[in-house]
Write the structure tokens for this entry.
Amino acid sequence: AGVIAAAGIYALRNNVNRLQQDHDNAELIANSISQLEHISTAQQPHTNMVMISNQTDIKQLKAFLADRNICISGTRWVLHRDVSQADVAAIIDACEAYNSQA
């Protein structure tokens, strides 16, 4: 229990303020996607997660993004400290490219 508690204490002391960046990145992606015809979000994010609508052809989108070295596992995209601003820009660009060819 102490090891898990130590990780939690570290996260509270060092990552809470940084978490806002992940929330902002999720909002940026969701706002960009909301302008597209062939990809849509299920709801506006309130956290660091972007929920892709079930109306989106996720299999086709997943394959398209994989060709651009962007790996998604499904309709819930979770932003975290290892996702940079450059990564966010690449995701948005790839989604716009997908939308153009769909």
Notes: DSSP finds four helices and two strands in the chain. The two ends are 50 Å apart (CA to CA). The helical segments are 2-14, 16-33, 58-66, 85-101. The longest strand covers residues 49-51.
